[in-house]
């Protein structure tokens, strides 16, 4: 099994509806995102996929979040734009664009600071 990891990021604001504390107020982060892709085999060149292709797809998805108030975006109108919900949404969006028979998005990690991160990953039994 091969694993490739690509990192990127975006800047955005959010506020957590119903949260009792400072995070209920509008505030921002320079979010860092890490995506891990898994594959069983290499192609004829000896690679899984070009890192730049993963980065291009990731950055395309992140562009829809960059410099926005995440709380105003459709995916987060009902579900709070928590790190957990953001990484699950990113996983689903990237899975649509990157997964194929030989390639699967395995894990997405979202960091709102260097000290706080959430991850969403494919369970071993998932196809």
Characterization of the model:
This protein has 127 residues and is α+β, with helices and mostly antiparallel strands. It has one domain (2-121): 6-pyruvoyl tetrahydropterin synthase/QueD (Tetrahydropterin Synthase, Chain A), CATH 3.30.479.10. The chain is 22% helix and 31% strand. It is built from two helices and four strands, in the order E-E-H-H-E-E. Strands 1-2-3-4 form a four-stranded antiparallel sheet, covered by helices on one side. A hairpin with a 5-residue loop joins strand 3 and strand 4 (117-121). Helix 1 (51-62) packs across helix 2. The model has no long low-confidence stretch (mean pLDDT 93).
Judging from the principal axes of the Cα atoms, what is the shape?
elongated
Helix content: 10-25%
Q: What is the radius of gyration?
A: 15 Å
Please report the number of helical segments. Answer: 2
Going by CATH, what is the homologous superfamily?
6-pyruvoyl tetrahydropterin synthase/QueD
- The fraction of residues in strands falls at 25-35%
